[in-house]
Write a structure and sequence with these properties.
7-stranded antiparallel sheet; 2 helices
Amino acid sequence: MTAGLIVLIVLVLVVAIAVLWLRRRYLVVTVDGESMTPAYQPGERVLVQRAAPGSLVAGQVVVLSGRPDPETGVGARWIIKRVAALPGDAIPRDTVPALRTAPGTRVPAGHLVVLGDNPDRSHDSRHTGYLTTDRLRGVVLRKIG
């Protein structure tokens, strides 16, 4: 093997490892729907950093996995919403009708309250109540492209 070929192989391996690392750490998601307007428009792409539930802060925009429709089996691949309340926060009963009769006074462990910025076009915790933290895929860092 020549020195040039060895350098090329090493370079290819380094690039492959870097790509794998980036894919495990970041996602690119296309906004689908109007639930987050005016902050995010349909068709815009956002850079998402994978995150653990314990790292979240109220007000951050997050990406969660969607649930399939029970009748058709088809579901949204991603959901983009703003975190309104985290585990341990007071339940926002005034702004989230689905939680007005929820037991307790605090958001339970393993759950989030998420809202779209455009309430008239958003299916979120106002309708479904809590979402579980196991659906969290990451935090939106910024728009791209």
